[in-house]
Amino acid sequence: MKTALMISFLFLGQTFNIELAINPVEQATGLMYRLQWDDSFQGMLFINKAPKQVSFWMKNTYLNLIMLYLDSNFNIVELHRPVPYDSRSIVSKTSNIQYVLELNPKYEMKVIQNWHAFKVKLEEEVAIATHNVMLYR
């Protein structure tokens, strides 16, 4: 199941399509049951209304991915490399996580090494998308 909202931006010659998981159903489903990464999307961003301690798991998730736990300023607080199908929880060490970015691992080096530029694009697009969502609720 794909989410209803996706953001897209050009970053270092690559178009990044990031699905947004905003409501409880989207967040509970996440990337479960997806069989493979394809060129239509590079990741999923989970958006919490306020910073909190988060917990994710990989049950029914077949994809290899990396998880970036981000604070309210889109700074990387924690990086995780979960194992597909693992039902153990990956609980954040702090309670200041507002966003979680699940990303195709093939983009890990490009994104991490250029995080400041990537987060500027991500933050801009998320601000626009979430503003538009709030207008139509």
Automatic annotation (TrEMBL):
InterPro entries in UniProt: DUF192 (IPR003795), Saro_0823-like_sf (IPR038695)
Gene source species: Brevinema andersonii
Lineage: Bacteria, Pseudomonadati, Spirochaetota, Spirochaetia, Brevinematales
Superkingdom, natural source: Bacteria
The protein, known as: Uncharacterized ACR, COG1430
Pfam families xrefs: DUF192
